[in-house]
Amino acid sequence: MINILLIIVGAFLLFASIIDWKFKALPSIILTAMVFVVAILNPANLWFGIITFIVAYMLMEADFFSGVADIKIMTMLGFMIHTTNYLFALILLTVFFGFIWKLLIKWRFRKATDVAFVPIFFFVYLTLLAVGGIL
Q1: What residue ranges do the domains of the chain occupy?
Q2: Which residue of 22, 69, 91, 122 pairs with 26 in a disulfide if CB–CB is 3.0 to 4.6 A?
Q3: pTM for the complete prediction?
């Protein structure tokens, strides 16, 4: 069951990344449903999801990213984390990849005001999946 969930979440993040890159908006109901499904299937990771939600909200307040969709996706990833070390890795990778991404976008597209941030979560997901941080 978990392997199917990993594939579904990966495909969902890829799809959401493409939509966010192209339209700069994601359907809220789909994101909420995905967070709900991941939370239900990983009840032991509830605290990691809550902590990740708080950190994501703080990042949004700090204007690091600018949407509720980013909070939902980061929270969804938090529900998939299984240790505190990987929780910190999720936060650090999000900040590191996000900072680099924003620099590249601002450098490449000088007039870019809104940066699609969901692709960052896709890369963070792949990185954590590769090192065994997501089960």
Answers
A1: 2-131
A2: 69
A3: 0.92
